[in-house]
Amino acid sequence: MGPQTIPTELRSLTGFTVGVTAARRREELVALLERRGARVVEAPAIRIVPLSDDHALQQATRACLSGIDIAVATTGIGFRGWLEAAESAGLADRLLSTLASARLLARGPKAQGAIRAAGLTEVWAPASECSSEVLEYLLAAGVRGKRVAVQLHGEPLPDFVAALRAAGAHVIEVPVYRWVLPEDISPLIRLVELIKLRYVDAVTFTSAPATAALLEVAGAEREAVLSAFRADVLAACVGPIAAGPLERYGVASLQPTRARLGGLVRALADRLPEHRTRMVEVAGHTLEIRGHAVVVDGDMRTLAPAPMTLLRTLAERPGRVISRADLLRSLPRSADGHAVEMAIARLRAGLGDSRIIRTVTKRGYRLAIETAGAG
């Protein structure tokens, strides 16, 4: 398929490719990104397995029925799942009565909504929606001798629970559901390859299990993926918990001021054009290189990955000659010397003016920018 020319006003994420790893609310996140012009690669990294019939959940619920002082709801879906599982086991009325007599804390608005939908009332919820702030609140209030039920959100909270126990609390962990890999991991494998090749500009993460799952699927390519995140691919995380698995490998991430999908997309819309766009004046044209597309004199042209990669490589040293060998190194390892000539030909066709890319005999190629020493 030839290059697409789109003579329209650019939206903030037009020309950029964003990977989405979310399982829950994926459609909402994709719609928000596409509304701003992004091309989206969907690769759900996890799926939720309810534990409504699980022995550990029923055991934890029965332990709560003997009385709790404090209950922490960490997610709306988890709190609702806990009540549904209790109903299936014939324990719903007793659990609701127990929770009504306890001090209820909600980690965020969704947990808050689930509590109120059950006819209960929370005593406090943090503005940050962070578990760390909930922990600070509990420790400041004092938990020595208290029975504290903590509804888990798909994975253990070892640091959170250990801190409460160290402060003298008796903690009941309530495992309502767990995260596992999707039944079909091929989209995730494809996203790993796209990250490694720098064919995506950003990847969004909305939960720590999803972040960890992508790194797990990367396997032997994990270091290549981490290297891409450190240098060229922006990791956009909804909050510090989702960012945790990447931060342990020294990968910085973009995070919104509030842990919301809308905030995450706004943060991306602000950051990507600012840090992933290069403007070049060449052969009488203005080129705006952004993600998988180039805007030529105001018209967006979507290019295939190989021509786009060569254009970015040439634009990194505008006007300077780049050898065929150096250009070949920027392409996937399977490419051969002929691939450079083919990609250059496609790039010239895509740009619409063959004069933009000049061939320097026996040396390589350069953008047609007249600078000192450009020959």
Tell me what you see in this structure.
It is a single chain. By secondary structure, the protein is of the alpha/beta class. It has three domains: 17-46 and 182-275, 3-Layer(aba) Sandwich (Rossmann fold), CATH 3.40.50.10090; 49-179, Rossmann fold (3-Layer(aba) Sandwich), CATH 3.40.50.10090; 277-367, Winged helix-like DNA-binding domain superfamily/Winged helix DNA-binding domain (Arc Repressor Mutant, subunit A, Orthogonal Bundle), CATH 1.10.10.10. The protein contains 15 helices and 17 strands. The protein has helices spanning 26-35, 55-65, 76-88, 92-100, 109-117, 131-141, 158-166, 186-196, 208-218, 222-231, 240-247, 261-275, 305-316, 324-330, 337-351; strands spanning 4-6, 17-20, 39-42, 47-50, 70-73, 103-106, 147-151, 170-174, 177-180, 202-205, 234-237, 277-282, 285-290, 293-296, 299-302, 357-360, 364-367. A hairpin with a 2-residue loop joins strand 14 (293-296) and strand 15. Helix 8 (186-196) packs across helix 9, helix 8 (186-196) packs across helix 10 (222-231) and helix 9 (208-218) packs parallel to helix 11. The longest helix is centred in the last third of the chain and has 15 residues, at 261-275. The chain is elongated, with a radius of gyration of 26 Å.
How many runs of DSSP E, i.e. beta strands? 17
Oligomeric status? single chain
CATH class value of the largest domain: Alpha Beta
Please outline the major beta sheet. Answer: 5 strands, antiparallel
CATH architecture of the largest domain: 3-Layer(aba) Sandwich
Strand order of the largest sheet: 1-15-14-13-12
